[in-house]
Amino acid sequence: MNHFRKLSALGWGIWSAFVLLTITLFATGVLNAPAIEPLPFILIALLVIIFQLDSIERKGVYFTFSESIVLIIFLFFDFETALFVNQIGLLVFQFVNLKPRVALRRFRFTYPWNAITSFLELAIPASVYLALGGETGLGFYTQDSFLPVAGLIAAIVLNTVLQKYQVGWWFRVDVPVRDFLSIAFYTYIVSLVFIFAASFFRETNLLVVSSIAAALTFFIKRLLIQKGRQDAFKSLIEQYDEAKEAVSLSQSEAQAIEVFLSQCERLNQYDAGFVEFTLFDRSLYFDLKTRQPIERPRVFDLLESTYPNESSVEYEMRFEWDAPMSDEFHDDYHSFISVRSEEIEGIRTWIVMAGEHVYGYPLIIQREIVKLLKSFNRTISRCHERDRLYTESRTDSLTLLANARAFYEYGIQQISDASMYPISVAMLDIDFFKKINDTHGHQVGDGVLQEFGRRIRQALRTDDFAARYGGEEFILLLNHCDVDQAVEIAERIRQKIEDKPFYVDGIAIQVTASIGVDTIQAFGDKRLDDTIRNADRALYVGGKYAGRNRVAHYNYLTT
């Protein structure tokens, strides 16, 4: 930022010197007041303003084509008229392009340098033209030699090359010479062609002639702007459309995040960037360059404190940046964009990007970024809704354990994996549950089922799987669990249920359970259905019929 502060002070110093020089030239009679009438002057000034308001941007440099109409005015009228309308048009351009957030900063830095550039764009070619004997007004058409015109063109080309290095020094922007020269060609050479074409109307009022030349130049300018915008953004918009489609096809939260990060990398619209994913009750942060999770970057805190209610924040050139924000990024970065999506159903995405290119995030690209964030948010919402429905379809709503459907799906997966063996299945049934319902009511019975499920979860190992099988029956799947271990776990659960009464609605209820167990020792020994059937038989033969409140393994049944 020190570079731009120094240049701002230098710019205003040089601007002041030019103003004093111009005033001195008028005071000493070297320059005279424009000879044009007020009404034509106003009309010409409006022509310049129209050109200033409709500009072409190339890598951060605005080309307004106003130089062409100023050149036309110089040749048809005089230097003084061109000088005045040029500076009036520049002031209008500066104020129209001011943004509320950075208006003062932008004007303070850009105006003096733009004013100097505009002055030199006219003064250097005009001085060369006049020094070589060129004439203005009607004399422009009657002069015998084309040497002044050739000198004018050469001065324009040299001045354009000089501008390339001026812009690089002032703004730290590297624009290829060919871009400047191509714009200069359309700005000046095409203008000269139309000037000569307008000579057919030279007997007409000069205002009419200059208007015709300006109108033809404006037409060419519009064609160039349209083509430039199409060429610049068509391909990038197509890439954003592809990115939105790729994100929308994600089938899970993790996949959506990975696809989003990879698409951002493919778009390559930044040299540094971060993203915040707010997903309900948690926030995730990623570095866009490395695609790795990180701690919350300080830039988000700065944006929240400085622009708490702004959904987007944009800087086009480095001198516009707030000082604290500037400290967070490399000095060579110009463009900055922060876009916060709306929070919908607890989901919000916030992306921050910065890069060396200037004017890197025009409005059309900002809109595409917003659409990409919305696409991601909708995808996350859809994935979570699908997960919720999937979980609900496989969860017992009363005990919050898995249901029988989920148990079968999980069980098939486990017995298909040879590394899980031995596998045991345990069936549990609450003793005299019907009596509890008949005595205390079904509401108390539901409370007993809930507490029963909770105690089962407390007694199980981390990898064990519990489900409500139906009614008062529960089922367990125990991986890496042989006969002795299965009996030990079942006995631990039985004791945990019996040790303390169940308190439901202030009622103490003594509850016991009978448990039947069966084990598959190795892959392929038994089917899951057979194992469940054996555990159920052990439950009734070894548990219920043997007096209840006990554990029985199918291998130990005597009948």
Automatic annotation (TrEMBL):
GO cellular component: plasma membrane
Residues spanning the membrane: 7-29, 35-53, 111-133, 145-162, 183-201, 207-225
One Pfam family matching this protein: GGDEF
PROSITE patterns reported in the protein's UniProt record: GGDEF (PS50887)
Origin: domain of life: Bacteria
First-tier enzyme category under EC: transferase
A biological process from GO: negative regulation of bacterial-type flagellum-dependent cell motility
Entry keywords, A to Z: Membrane, Nucleotidyltransferase, Transferase, Transmembrane, Transmembrane helix
EC number, as in UniProt: 2.7.7.65
A GO term, aspect molecular function: diguanylate cyclase activity
Domain called GGDEF: residue spans: 421-556
Name of the protein in question: Probable diguanylate cyclase YcdT
Record organism: Exiguobacterium aurantiacum
Source taxonomy: Bacteria, Bacillati, Bacillota, Bacilli, Bacillales
